[in-house]
Write a structure and sequence with these properties.
The chain is of the alpha/beta class. It is built from 30 helices and 17 strands.
Length: about 625
């Protein structure tokens, strides 16, 4: 170790003496990449920028700070990768997860970009080699975890390095009451203090107005250019159903619609992830658990299999997924309600990063609301934050109970507008509404008459006039409300109570074991103020299967030859991935293979015109994929 330290110290001294020479060499190495558009085409294989990418990239290249909010799959990474490749020095990327930084460095290296990472997986010799490359000006991008970045030794090292920029990825981690909060992110304001002339760019896919404000404040980005792209992910189909044997509902969904696809299933507890993974495995699926309580080697192995193999299902808590770059996740399923719309949007955003059709599917019930309410009330947060979290939970329940387009509700939460999407369950199977004013008043009256100390099961028994022991023991069979609700079924009354909670007329009181209480707005209903229209719970959504041929059709082709070529190219990609030890999508995304299957290039020049095929990919894989296409056509 002493030898390594001495070597690093010697390198630092040499580095200072040779700074001018290094700058000349660095400028020469980057001179071939003259413009952002040239980098985009030759390195990444794309013809044009999307949305606000180009303006943001140019702003950072010129030395400005930026805050970028783009949906998952919207191309956030290019906003710092390209400036780092064009500015003098190394771009320092703050990344919260080891797996994420390794994945991104692997993908960049495949493209010929000089990238590396510093984290705990490296040996002392490997860490020294990365630092040597950085001090010598041989890196364009260095990925590093926030806790390592803010160490004194790292700050001293960076003081001897020409830094192109600081990129703070997954910047929502700075939000102290967000579901991905990382305490180390609060210390990142030091970057502006220690390196005031180095541009900083903070990026996230998920942040409501309050979280955005918190990011700007905590990272001292008050003067930054703020770019907020649209939140819409039109390729994702949103579907939400009431819990009715959720494991069997999940099995039917996967069997009918995604029998060979990769997907993520989110559960609220660690125990449930293991139970569901085992249950799916027993029925023939390759399902692997993932949660923070598992041995680190098991977590790493399961995540690597998910990234590198096709058809793997990960059953996980929210410990899994932040920044996962796997583009061909065809579905994200929630067996339990997340804690907020923000969490739901981020987790479902891991589906369909390649732009091809994907599903966000969820089951929910009042038990989910009760559990989350209890978690909020028992947290160490102050009362203001508890009220905020309760509002966020109620807003998510409102999304579940809406009779209108789910995408409209989702986007409106983030301040975005859209018309009906025709790609969610409420658009494809419109939900009927009914005048529930009288039913709502009956329900609220009963909650109040029973002292606001009982849950929905007992209240519905009273409403339906059931002579249960519990009803009789509290003498609720003597109430005027007893048996006054027989015009609705038990299931329909459950829907009434659920919707009244979602709209804020009733609330779940976890201090009294999940009992229902009346809110201030609920009392206004009792006084006869306003009409209430409720949704009728819809029938199950019809079966919907997606095959490779259908995905091709949705991309503009229903040619069976194209489907056959696509299947051949996917098999070839898998074979190469196993041989080279990289995830299949690092070689080519599904969307790129689809374009090959449709365009059927016969020369390397034609291959180079396909989106996602850069110069390095042509050099490494062009001939073998051209041969596979040609053989598929004979």
């Amino acid at each position: 170790m002493r030898a390594l330290q001495d070597g690093l110290s010697h390198l630092r001294t040499s580095r200072i003496k040779a700074r001018k020479s290094t700058l000349i060499n660095c400028a020469s190495a980057k001179s071939k990449l003259t413009t952002p558009k040239k980098v985009l085409r030759t390195v990444f294989g794309y013809d044009r920028f999307r949305g606000h990418q180009e303006e943001t990239i140019n702003h950072v290249i010129q030395g400005g700070d930026a805050f970028v909010l783009m949906p998952t799959g919207g191309g956030k990474s290019l906003c710092f990768q390209i400036p780092a490749m064009l500015r003098h020095g190394v771009g320092i990327v703050v990344s919260p997860l080891i797996a994420l930084m390794q994945d991104q460095v692997m993908a960049l290296t495949e493209l010929g970009v000089r990238a590396a990472f510093l984290n705990s997986t490296l040996s002392a010799e490997e860490s020294w080699d990365v630092k040597r490359q950085m001090l010598a000006g041989d890196l364009d991008l260095l990925y590093i975890a926030p806790e390592r970045l803010v160490m004194h030794s790292t700050m001293e090292l960076l003081s001897d390095v020409d830094i192109a920029l600081f990129a703070i990825d997954e910047a929502h981690c700075v939000s102290q009451w967000g579901h991905d909060f990382r305490e180390e992110y609060l210390q990142l304001s030091i970057l502006h203090e220690r390196f005031p002339n180095v541009p900083r760019i903070a990026l996230t896919a998920t942040a409501d107005a309050q979280t955005r404000s918190e990011i700007v404040e905590r990272l001292n980005l008050g003067g930054a250019r703020i770019t907020i792209a649209g939140f819409d992910r039109p390729n994702i189909r949103y579907r939400i159903a009431l819990k009715d044997n959720p494991k069997r509902q999940l099995l039917k969904f996967i069997s009918d619609e995604h029998p060979k696809d990769s997907g993520i299933v989110y559960c609220l507890s660690r125990k449930k992830t293991e139970e569901v993974a085992s249950w799916l495995s027993d029925r023939g699926w390759t399902a692997l658990p993932y949660h923070a309580g598992l041995d680190s080697d098991i977590r790493r192995t399961n995540q690597e299999r998910f990234l590198r193999e096709d058809g793997i299902i990960i059953v996980a808590t929210i410990a899994f997924g932040m920044g996962i770059d796997k583009p061909d996740v065809r579905f994200v399923a929630h067996l339990d309600l997340p804690k907020s719309i923000e969490a739901y949007y981020q987790e479902t955003g891991r589906a369909g990063r390649d732009g091809l059709p994907a599903d966000a599917w969820m089951t929910y019930g009042m038990i989910d609301v009760a559990i989350h309410s209890q978690l909020i009330d028992s947290s160490d947060a102050d009362e203001d934050h508890k009220r905020l979290e309760h509002r966020r939970l109620s807003t998510l329940l409102g999304l579940c109970e809406t009779a209108s387009c789910r995408r409209q509700v989702l986007l409106k939460y983030f301040g975005d507008e859209s018309g009906p999407c025709n790609n969610c369950d409420t658009c494809l199977n419109p939900v009927a509404t009914w005048d529930g004013t009288l039913a709502a008043r009956k329900a609220i009256y009963l909650v109040n008459a029973t002292g606001q100390r009982f849950g929905t099961v007992h209240l519905i028994d009273v409403m339906l006039g059931k002579d249960t022991e519990r009803v009789k023991s509290f003498e609720h069979d003597t109430l005027s409300a007893f048996g006054r609700g027989q015009e609705l079924t038990e299931r329909e009354w459950a829907s009434v109570f659920r919707q009244l909670v979602a709209r804020g007329y009733l609330a779940v009181d976890m201090e009294h074991f999940g009992s229902i209480k009346v809110t201030a707005t609920g009392y206004q209903v009792l006084q006869g103020n306003g009409d209430i229209h409720l949704r009728k719970d819809p029938a199950p959504v019809r079966k919907h299967k997606k095959s490779a041929a259908e995905i091709l059709a949705s991309a503009g082709s229903s040619d069976s030859t194209s489907a056959r070529i696509f299947s051949t190219l996917r098999a070839l990609r898998t074979e190469i991935a196993k041989t080279t030890g990289v995830p299949p999508y690092v070689i080519f995304h599904d969307a790129t293979l689809l374009a090959m299957a449709e365009d059927r290039p016969s020369t390397l020049d034609e291959m180079g015109l396909i989106s996602g095929v850069g110069e390095r990919k042509i050099e490494k894989y062009g001939d073998v994929f051209l041969k596979a296409i040609a053989e598929s056509l004979t």
